[in-house]
Amino acid sequence: MSREWRIGVAGLGVVGGGLVRFLQERPGFAPGGDTVRLVGVTARDRDKPRGADLSGVEWFDHPLSLAASPEVDLFIELIGGAEGVARAAVTAALKLGKPVVTANKALIAAHGLELAALAERTGASLHFEAAVMGGVPAVKMLREGLVGDDVISIAGILNGTCNFILTEMERTERSFAAVLAEAQRLGYAEADPTTDVGGFDAAHKIVVLAALAFGGAPNFAAAEVEGIQAVELIDIRLARDLGYRIKLIAEAAGSARGASVRVAPALVPLNHPLAQAGGALNALFVEGQRVGRLYIQGAGAGAGPTAAAVAADIADVIAGGRRPVFGRPATELKPLPSLERDRQIDKAFLRLMVRDEPGTIAAISEALAKAGVSIDSFLQRPVEDSGHVPIVLITHPATEMAIDDAVTHIASIPAVIERPRSIRVART
Amino acid sequence: MSREWRIGVAGLGVVGGGLVRFLQERPGFAPGGDTVRLVGVTARDRDKPRGADLSGVEWFDHPLSLAASPEVDLFIELIGGAEGVARAAVTAALKLGKPVVTANKALIAAHGLELAALAERTGASLHFEAAVMGGVPAVKMLREGLVGDDVISIAGILNGTCNFILTEMERTERSFAAVLAEAQRLGYAEADPTTDVGGFDAAHKIVVLAALAFGGAPNFAAAEVEGIQAVELIDIRLARDLGYRIKLIAEAAGSARGASVRVAPALVPLNHPLAQAGGALNALFVEGQRVGRLYIQGAGAGAGPTAAAVAADIADVIAGGRRPVFGRPATELKPLPSLERDRQIDKAFLRLMVRDEPGTIAAISEALAKAGVSIDSFLQRPVEDSGHVPIVLITHPATEMAIDDAVTHIASIPAVIERPRSIRVART
Description:
The structure is a homodimer.
Chain A: E1 4-10, H1 14-25, E2 35-42, E3 58-59, H2 63-68, E4 74-77, H3 84-95, E5 100-102, H4 105-122, E6 126-127, H5 138-145, E7 151-157, H6 160-172, H7 176-186, H8 194-197, H9 200-214, E8 224-225, H10 233-241, E9 244-255, E10 258-269, H11 273-276, E11 281-288, E12 292-299, H12 303-319, E13 345-346, E14 348-355, H13 360-370, E15 375-380, E16 388-395, E17 398-399, H14 400-411, E18 421-425
Parallel strand pairs in A: 1-2, 1-4, 2-3, 4-5, 5-6, 8-10, 10-18
Antiparallel strand pairs in A: 7-9, 7-11, 9-10, 11-12, 13-17, 14-16, 14-18, 15-16
Helix pairs in contact in A: 1-12, 3-4, 4-9, 6-7, 13-14
């Protein structure tokens, strides 16, 4: 009763190359007796060395023809990008009722609902474990493991490049620009790093996880996204002096009625697991009404972890089973509406540069009071060469509006020489 | 095309009560449109209040009759125990081809292979997510999420009672006996605490996880088990002074060819995630050849988390799919043979009580050298009231045989007043 699954792989980058080697070495890896055989591949550049023997494998010049080939039973999309050939090829395979495994977070975040509906209509399946957190089975955890729970919130570190840059800034006491340049030299960051450092990659991932967690469809448009470009070394240092580390936190809180989804730098207490997930690690907290707080951490990218996640999805396709793409049938899903965050109350880190003049502290304290914001901790550092004094404080929990008010009031104090920098303290 | 699944629940303790309420409140929780209905229950004491309305539910006097009832499509076993009625009832249900969900780690550790073979013969399925780490989906992670990887080792904290006791000993500076007595008063530990504090509960769990991780059948007989009864407050204190915390670590390393499986107290560096998983938390590291190091942490017990895990298993049964119980067909599984650990090389913590006499340090140093063991760190504390001096040291990595040798040599030094206490330092 066992069968052979003929696999087509579109995209032969680092992950694709790793996957091709794995499939060739381990055709019987999936449980239950079925085997896999790599029958077709496609990539932008046919002549690039891949470290894999593709002699017995048909080369396709276009992903669409690979997806549609009658020789291919299961289509793997590792091209990337929300639009263009990736979307067209995945759509073509699903239309033919072929199962698809993809690592494409942008595609799922942008068109997840439409693709899920198509898959469910044609009886195909669509898997995307590798799209989020690489080898960490976060998608499976939310989609299957927590189906008996109501998730309240998820929060984590979902972009390894940003985490590497922030970790290196602290470790080597260098600026964002200097560390980014090094990361680009080492190949950890793209030539155009905007997708990563602008927070968009993390946003794609948290949007997908939020859909699974709260029972909606991905809604990228409703996510607030701020990257790490404006994080300065002085903020990293001062945050550490107050017992915090700055991380790019992707988070979502809500329910099927709606969610607030956000990616932004935030302060995390030094002894918190998210503060200790350094380098290129990814990490995620899930808070469920029944299970309480789950934490999961691991390599969020790289050939090995991501190829392993794709392989797990292939095994899921082979195992079969009836499970809607996002846990609920696509016909019942709506894009998760955005919850107003006016009432969201958090502590904030405020960093000011002031001239060392009498009465300045009193004026700051008054400005905060006017905004209804009170102080949790306060740190004034010795005068720097410039004669400007950095002052940093953590507020008690306050609405974002109140914090914005406080920033505006403080900025109008004559001795304050630039608009204060405000960074949220993550709820943990 | 949707159907109703008629559920029978055997065992109405804390988890069973939570599950019953969940099933009654959320009959449509499983993805895909099928519903569940609680049709039968059984427990030792019919008259105990459960906080759930059982008026429309048939009461069975024996788990066997519930398991065999033609009214029941899916049998949930929450009785516990490797033998007796739990085993008989699960066997009866599987024989009839009925899917079974169980939270019974002892049963799966002792009879997993036999039950898996029976399930696969009759076409039933057998799920046990709730048997290990409560609401943390560790079974699903190993069985499905890592099917595209080769696991090298797993290590973690799998017994919340032991973790609570060790955490409280350190926090309140009390003895094992005192904290255990309090835990019993609070209901965190059983009247007969041997299963927990003797390490057997953690051993059941690591044996099950090792089977999934390495592709074998559970082999409880091959596990080495040591509990926390002999952990003294002085060791906890001295370990902390050296930068470590003592945890009950359950670990397994190996492959399908065999594994070394062990539960024992071990030192973990204070900044390590396992050292920071306090109280009743459970935590697990998985090291895979491709995914690298994964870490997962959460509530390992309790009504909410465990009932959520049972519910996830019910959803898996409903989703269907062909997946052997232990990932590989039972006919291909052998009990994981025990790997010799002679070559296992770890650092060790040695704690000595000595009389404050000249030449003692030299004699200890000589005894260690004789065994071929060298010193990584060394701490002598001020004399206590008794006139006895505690000396504690961490060795460089050495075989267990060499450490045993060193302990014997040291014990024979006249100034050493008792056999040194030796605790392994966990590889992390």
